[in-house]
UniProtKB/TrEMBL annotation:
Tagged with keyword Amino-acid biosynthesis: yes
EC number(s) from the headed UniProt entry: 1.17.1.8
Homology family: Belongs to the DapB family.
Protein name: 4-hydroxy-tetrahydrodipicolinate reductase
Domain of life: Eukaryota
Transport listed as a keyword: no
Organism: Symbiochloris irregularis
């Protein structure tokens, strides 16, 4: 499928990630649908948001079914991207599934088991991942491989995890939650995801996590620290991202990957970003 045949609807262009992704879609030469489903903000009253000079009309929940039906009629190659909020994940995914719409779900949180179940049952193609940034995905894949190859290698080690994000982030890092799964398989002392420390206060972010002041409104700093049982050995892994570009570019990769899977009528229908990376589909 050529790029121009792939039409992309980004929900919600009013948000920080949605806007960055919509811009990346335009940069990549894909067809950006000039409609975006959004939440309850006043922006809906204003009516539209500009994306790289393109006016994108905002659609509230009450009008979304009509809008989707109209768009699907005109654009059979439609793929939806969702960067909304944890509280909207399951409801939005169900809406895409009910409409038979392939989707890239970048939004974190919600009930992830339910999300996978609904998607499986609907048979739609989807990429679902809390992390779209190529190099972070590669780190995530590396940790998964370490856990598979050397289960128990960090047996008895104590894990601590700290993540810092812009203060508007409502949930704990979905990426950290996934990476903790690998550490669990590596045998660390019992560690549940609710032990991940969330840093949202500017003073602590700059003072302890070394977040640059200009990045307070958009950053994702993660530190995983491991200490041996006797305290003589320490390991530390970090991935510190300023801004949103790597996620936006990775999302475009996910869209193009999904379009190719749909075209080849692939048997597997649900993917994550490690699948996209392994397929060599990240630029
Ligand atoms: N996978 C990845 O690589 C990444 C994932 N994320 C995730 O993306 C999500 C969004 O982050 P961010 O852009 O910073 O958040 P923002 O708060 O900036 O944006 C959220 C947007 O969602 C909209 N929204 C809320 N409810 C609904 C709904 N029911 N339907 C449609 N739109 C809705 C809001 O609109 P309104 O104001 O109208 O309510 C708002 O525009 C988070 O879950 C975050 O963790 C972030 C970065 C990278
Ligand atoms: O909300 C964010 O900003 C981010 N969310 C994702 C997550 O929760 O893992 C990815 C990255 O940390 C940025």
């Amino acid at each position: 499928m050529c790029r121009a045949e792939t039409s992309v609807m980004v929900n919600a262009c009013t948000g920080k990630m949605g806007h960055a992704v919509a811009e990346a879609v335009v940069r990549a030469g894909l067809d950006l649908i000039p409609f975006s489903i959004t939440g309850e903000s006043e922006a809906v009253v204003v009516g539209n948001v500009g994306v790289s000079g393109i006016p994108v009309q905002l659609v509230g929940a009450d009008k979304r079914q009509q809008a989707i039906s109209d768009i699907m009629r005109d654009k059979p190659g439609l793929i939806v991207v969702d960067f909304t909020l944890p509280g909207a994940v399951n409801e939005n995914a169900k809406f895409y599934c009910d409409n038979g719409l392939p989707f890239v779900m970048g939004t974190t949180g919600g009930d992830r088991v339910q999300l996978t179940r609904d998607t499986e049952e609907s048979g739609v193609y989807a990429v679902i991942a809390p992390q779209m940034g190529k190099q972070v995905v590669a780190f995530q894949a590396t940790m998964e491989m370490m856990a598979q190859n050397f289960p128990g290698a960090f047996s008895g080690y104590k894990l601590s995890v700290r993540e810092s994000h812009q203060r508007t982030k409502v949930d704990t890092s979905g990426t950290a939650k996934e990476i903790v799964r690998s550490f669990q398989q590596l045998g660390v002392e019992p560690f549940e995801v609710d032990a991940i420390q969330r840093v949202r206060e500017a003073g602590q972010q700059m003072g302890e996590m070394h977040v640059p002041e200009k990045a307070l409104s958009g950053h994702a700093f993660h530190t995983y620290h491991l200490t041996s049982p006797d305290g003589t050995v320490n390991f530390e892994f970090q991935h510190n991202v300023v801004g949103r570009e790597i996620y936006a570019e990775g999302t475009v990769d996910a869209v193009l990957f999904l379009a190719s899977k749909i075209k080849e009528k692939a048997e597997q229908r649900i993917f994550n970003m490690v699948d996209v990376l392994r397929a060599g589909a990240m630029r």
